[in-house]
């Protein structure tokens, strides 16, 4: 058995900011009958009170799990570390530097799916980004318990903190994945008391699927409703570091191309100018002095209902045709998502997709296609640009698509880091194109991925069955 004790930091107030209305909550998990062990989830409990609770239960503190590195969740980490100098503070690997910066040395890193033992009982660390880039949840499947931090509240969810890697489309995918894994009777233990229910945790997932508007949208596949509501909730964190580019930015665009792409995939100045003059959109992150990343797309009259036979046959047709005027446009074709090598693994690519989706949706377009590189097909080693090892099982799975007309084990496709990135941002593989582009590492192939920005009815597609007679 496991005992969960709830510690609410302050009394909930009827007015004030979010934290005043929804005070922080920490949890002490205790297990075992003889050698009892405890685990603290989020550090808002005064160390003296923590020590008293441990003495009451005759338990030893094994460690502290931090759901993410926001000040209201780590308020007492230094004080707890001083009173319990030998315990570990467990965090998502993406937040280790932030934790070490406040002086903590005894840090344990948790990855998605990693097991945390508490007196022989297994808890699972789940990577649940969206509120921040480093958000994690702690899952106890045996007892149907989930500690969610700011990923999921009673009656709501966390906002998107864009300055710390918050991202709306990733948040949507995170909640989709949770709903697919969790039993409806799972008890939700969030990092805050719920102002909606005026009661302490747990909150039962089956009830949240009825009362929590964000989960209702996710469960019904209403991606657009979810996104608009979360954007409004997160408006205080809006960023102004994204902007559309024009011909006057051509030199900065060319500079970024050289620092973002391997040589064989860089667009020339003439090609970039042709695209801009053909009505293509190019959106960047950065400032006037330096771009950290860029995303480019054009609009097309193609619709997914037209089927693969009418989809562009090669990259030239996909990326160079004139952009369709809005009244005729039904899809957006993203053909360039490049991030400066020095800015990678900082959420720039996901942020570019988020703001591109915003622009595309505002232009009245719902369907979006992207051509995903697959360097895992043959492997690619280009120094600072990329270092991807060849994955034989991945290549065999792609080849089987053309030889047998099917993808036998679709999960093997996610070995490829670029395809995995796009699926994490809500895309789904739809079509594999052979001889699509000159790209040796990808075997000249591309996996075309698709997303509908409004709903999921046609997002959950299997990879299209290749017609051998085509």
Structure description:
This protein is of the alpha+beta class. The chain has two domains: 2-237, Ribonuclease Z/Hydroxyacylglutathione hydrolase-like (Metallo-beta-lactamase, Chain A, 4-Layer Sandwich), CATH 3.60.15.10; 242-452, Gcn5-related N-acetyltransferase (GNAT) (Aminopeptidase). The protein has helices at 18-21, 47-57, 77-83, 96-101, 168-181, 205-211, 213-219, 223-233, 250-260, 269-277, 315-320, 348-362, 392-404, 417-424; strands at residues 2-8, 25-31, 36-41, 59-65, 88-92, 107-110, 115-118, 121-127, 136-140, 145-149, 187-190, 203-204, 242-244, 281-286, 291-300, 331-339, 367-372, 380-381, 387-388, 428-433, 446-452. A seven-stranded mixed sheet has the order 13-14-15-16-17-21-20, sandwiched between helices. A six-stranded mixed sheet has the order 1-2-3-4-5-6. Helix 2 links the parallel strand 3 and strand 4 (59-65). Mean pLDDT is 89; it is low at 459-470.
* Secondary-structure class: alpha+beta
* End-to-end gap: 60 Å
Strand % is 15-25%
Unreliable parts: 459-470
| Main pleated-sheet profile | 7 strands, mixed
Q: Which word captures the global form?
A: elongated
Name the helicity range.
25-40%
CATH T-level topology of the largest domain: Metallo-beta-lactamase, Chain A
The overall average pLDDT, rounded, is 89
What number of structural domains do the residues give? 2
The named CATH superfamily of the largest domain? Ribonuclease Z/Hydroxyacylglutathione hydrolase-like
């Amino acid at each position: 058995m496991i005992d969960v004790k709830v510690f609410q930091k302050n009394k909930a107030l009827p007015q004030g900011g979010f934290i005043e209305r929804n005070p922080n909550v920490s949890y002490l998990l205790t297990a075992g009958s003889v050698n009892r062990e405890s685990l603290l989830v989020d550090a808002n409990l005064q160390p003296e009170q923590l020590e008293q609770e441990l003495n009451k239960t005759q338990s030893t503190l094994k460690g502290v799990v931090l759901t993410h590195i926001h000040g209201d969740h780590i308020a007492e980490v230094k004080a707890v570390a001083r009173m319990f100098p030998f315990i570990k503070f467990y965090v998502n690997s993406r937040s280790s530097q932030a934790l070490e910066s406040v002086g903590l040395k005894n840090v344990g890193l948790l990855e998605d799916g990693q097991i945390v033992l508490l007196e022989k009982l297994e808890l699972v660390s789940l990577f649940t980004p969206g509120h921040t880039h480093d958000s994690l949840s702690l899952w106890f499947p045996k007892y149907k318990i989930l500690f969610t931090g700011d990923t999921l509240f009673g009656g709501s969810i966390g906002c998107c903190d864009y300055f710390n890697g918050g991202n709306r489309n990733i948040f949507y995918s995170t909640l989709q994945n949770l709903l697919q894994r969790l039993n409806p009777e799972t008890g939700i233990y969030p990092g805050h008391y719920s102002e909606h229910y005026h009661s302490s945790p747990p909150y039962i997932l089956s009830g949240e699927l009825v009362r929590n508007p964000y989960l209702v949208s996710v469960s019904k596949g209403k991606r657009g409703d979810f996104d608009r509501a979360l954007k409004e909730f997160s408006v205080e964190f809006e960023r102004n570091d994204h902007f559309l580019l024009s011909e006057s930015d051509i030199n900065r665009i060319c500079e970024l191309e050289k620092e973002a792409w391997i040589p064989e995939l860089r667009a020339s100045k003439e090609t970039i100018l042709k695209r801009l003059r053909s009505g293509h959109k190019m959106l960047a992150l950065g400032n006037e002095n330096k771009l950290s990343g860029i995303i480019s797309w054009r609009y097309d009259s193609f619709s997914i209902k037209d089927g693969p036979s009418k989809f562009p046959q090669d990259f030239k047709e996909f990326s160079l045709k004139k952009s369709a005027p809005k009244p005729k446009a039904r899809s957006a074709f993203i053909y360039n998502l490049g991030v400066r090598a020095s800015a990678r693994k900082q959420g720039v690519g996901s942020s570019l997709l988020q703001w591109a989706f915003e622009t595309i949706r505002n232009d009245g377009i719902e369907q979006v296609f992207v051509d995903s590189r697959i360097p895992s097909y043959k492997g690619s080693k280009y120094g600072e640009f990329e270092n991807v090892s060849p994955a034989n099982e991945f290549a065999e799975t792609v080849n089987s698509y053309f030889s047998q007309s099917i993808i036998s084990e679709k999960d093997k496709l996610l070995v490829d880091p670029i395809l995995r990135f796009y699926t994490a941002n809500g895309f789904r593989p739809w079509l594999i194109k052979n001889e699509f582009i000159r790209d040796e590492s990808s075997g000249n192939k591309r996996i075309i991925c698709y997303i509908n920005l409004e709903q999921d009815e046609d997002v959950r597609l299997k990879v299209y069955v290749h017609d051998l007679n085509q």
